[in-house]
């Protein structure tokens, strides 16, 4: 498989989609480098992967800090001798109606969901450009392709990264640097993401909805695996992932 021996950096790897993806890619022979803020969770996941015969390492990483992303990428190079893919997956979703004016949460979403992705892009771009090879996979959301009442700022951050990934793909094709991008638009996936909602009425509605339709993060991990496993001259660039029960 094309995925075998690829060195893959994953942000937001301490739970949910990032954790499921790290384990799936490692099982298929990739060398995975995990980043997030909760060290005990990262350590436990790396231990699980190694116990399963896989190759993995981690570094405590806050994606809002550009130097943390540079250090995570440097770890991939020193530990595994290169870098093939970054999976920009870290994100939060403290959704609320705009009229509630949770401006601190707006700023946190912009810092993590947009600037966090940009920090990942900035950390890998010099490496991918020089080696004329690399792939940037990013978790947007269905809220990044259509609007949902109650998710104005979250959706804005996810629309932003959609544009960013498509422009990187186009510019790379023009510049001949062979950088591929893949953007994921998951719908309701059962993870810890809803824990980041503080607005009581939003949380109540979302909890009930996810209990009704939500699916396992393994669904997204399988799609990431598929995107990375394509031949070098194939860029599969956009994926929506819906629970079958979600309208
Ligand atoms: P989780 O809450 O389980 O995972 C979020 C991850 O992001 C955690 O590993 C968390 O780790 C990490 N993270 C948050 N803030 C930071 C930060 N500042 N620096 C580094 N890591 C950070 O939820 P999901 O797995 O669902 O979320 C993954 C992505 O999927 C997000 O971008 C989310 O927006 C997106 N998504 C999720 C959907 C869903 O229904 N679950 C639907 C559509 C998109 P830690 O706290 O340890 O730092």
TrEMBL record:
SMART domains: PKS_KR (SM00822)
PANTHER family registered for this protein in UniProt: DEHYDROGENASE/REDUCTASE SDR FAMILY MEMBER 11 (PTHR43115), DEHYDROGENASE_REDUCTASE SDR FAMILY MEMBER 11 (PTHR43115:SF4)
Domain Ketoreductase: 6-151
Keyword Oxidoreductase: yes
Gene3D superfamilies, A to Z: NAD(P)-binding Rossmann-like Domain
Protein family: Belongs to the short-chain dehydrogenases/reductases (SDR) family.
Protein name: Short-chain dehydrogenase oxidoreductase
UniProt KW keywords: Oxidoreductase
Organism: Lactiplantibacillus fabifermentans DSM 21115
Domain of life: Bacteria
One Gene Ontology MF term: oxidoreductase activity, acting on the CH-OH group of donors, NAD or NADP as acceptor
Short name of any one Pfam family annotated for the protein: adh_short
